[in-house]
Amino acid sequence: NTDDTQPRHFLDVDDLSEAELFAVLDRADEYKRAVENGEDHADLSGQTLGMLFQKASTRTRVSFETGMTQLGGHAIFLGEDDIQLGRGEPLKDTSRALSRYVDAVMARVFKHENVEVLAEYSSVPIVNGLTDDAHPCQTLADLQTIREHEGDLEDVSAAWIGDGNNVAQSFALGCALTGVDLTIATPEGYEVDDAVLERARDLGGDPTTTTDPIEAATDADVIYTDVWISMGQEDERDVRMNDFEGFQVSADLLEHAPDASVMHCLPAHRGEEITDDVVEGDQSIVFDQAENRLHAQKALLSWLLE
Ligand code: CP
Ligand code: NVA
User: Fold this and answer.
1) Cα dist. 101→40, 46, 49 in Å?
2) Which end of the chain offers a freer environment for a tag, N or C, measured as fewer CB atoms within 10 Å?
3) So what family is this one in (predicted)?
């Protein structure tokens, strides 16, 4: 936060440097301990977060709102159809108006360009709560979770199995920044964007891509998947169900990675990208991931606003 006139935004993971990302992850661990020990940590006393949603959410909404309460601040839920945005007020006007009231805005939108517009017109930090292209807050929680379970991020090998979607793309950037070795297995036509792979390489990463889920999973420390049909892709259901055949994270796949932790950002669609027994099984750490959304986002907000 060197330039006092320009707020820092968090539109994707690589808006943070490696050192800043580790600082946020360390702070996330501290907040987790503070919650566990019942210690007061009202670091955002009197501050308000606006939460703009164009898509549904359970974890993002509740973790941000609860996080602001725990930090001594306040959060306001702004569903698109509850505010004038839903009746055609331009996003740039919404952003400038919100900036005059709140201390930060978290936004979940369809087009990634929309968080860029919010940021362009905002005088307060904009935090990406998921776009069609990126889900960086999820990555913060994911990295915190992997570090908890593996002890360190270096020497960890992770396999992404499924759609090269928003969650995959931010995860690829997070792995690149923190030294996690990543293999991404997707069906043809569902790859992570080349531009994202290029950004990951620029950050020092070297993600491997394949169309073979077994190759990616074999001996991995972490296996990560997400839905095959993301919000906004409901019309593609039939085609996608067909195209993703063979990419299910199941007990059969885990035979190739008996020691792997299984991750999923949730919500999970059991019987599609993952089986019920894997979600419920010993290798699953999906609810640790969900919990860490709270701690990681509190860390991000207090870091952005200090
Ligand atoms: N993982 C995640 O962002 O969940 P929600 O859609 O419930 O917020
Ligand atoms: N890829 C999913 C993630 C939901 C948290 C979606 O965009 O719907």
Assistant:
1) 26, 12, 9
2) C
3) Belongs to the aspartate/ornithine carbamoyltransferase superfamily. OTCase family.
